[in-house]
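Figure S4 source data
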Amino acid sequence: MPMLSRKADYALLILSYLHHHPEGGCARGIAEHFSLSRGFLANILKELCQKGFVSSHRGVNGGYVMNRPAESITLAELLEALDDGFRLAECSDHEGHDTCSLTSVCPMKTPIRAVHHRIHEVLRQVTLAELFPNTQSVAELIPLLGMLPDRSDIAESGHRSPCSAHPLESPSSGVTPLAEVLK
């Protein structure tokens, strides 16, 4: 079971595209770039507009742009806006709603809620900018995830590694960098 819905996954792709194209992009161009369904993408763009993540501009030079910098949007904020919140299980609703019929007898309720809260805390610490590296090189993403030692020497020349000195490594917003969260 994926923890990200298809809608959230596509929204991340859209926002990544717009982050890397600050001049904006049209629905057709974004759909073609990722080989996505234009209809589904258009619906997600509409919802991203309604939720305040992007703005649309009509006309010949129209398209979509991000309303806020990716550094100011957390993964939790996006998931909560699009999917009505993140829930690990029925009993882990952070608003206290219990829809599970086994709640009164389930020995897993408390530990599952604790895991849910820990995951939610991590999601609140990860900004979209950390998910949208300045490079598309897989070689540079691997050290970020801690899978292999930093091999900046195999990254394409002219691109800095996402693990190198970066303004997000000492955030003033109180948001912990993704590399730090994953340690």
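Figure S5 source data
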Amino acid sequence: LLKKLSQQAHANAQANALSSEARSRATFVEAAAKAMLGANFMDTEETGQARGLLEGSLSVISEVSEAHSLTIDTLNRLAVLAANREEHQLSLQLLERALKQYESACQQVT
């Protein structure tokens, strides 16, 4: 279901007939679906598929400026996967990116 949702949202995000707001929402839905599917694969210890989906989510979500919590969660999950592969430097870089995103989101609120 999440895979189908991601595919449909991707198609909607590419549709020129839709308003830019509708395309932005579709982009967010696509990224969220990929992130949730990636999280499901993490939970079932299928890390190869999880990593690809989470990275795909991150590349899509970069187009949506207001998706801070999804970006932070995705970066944290990717950091866990990197640490599990003993890629500690990459894990640290991902965590630092998540922290910067969090700090940026906090500044926008205040």
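The longest helix spans residues 20-43. The chain has one domain: 2-109.
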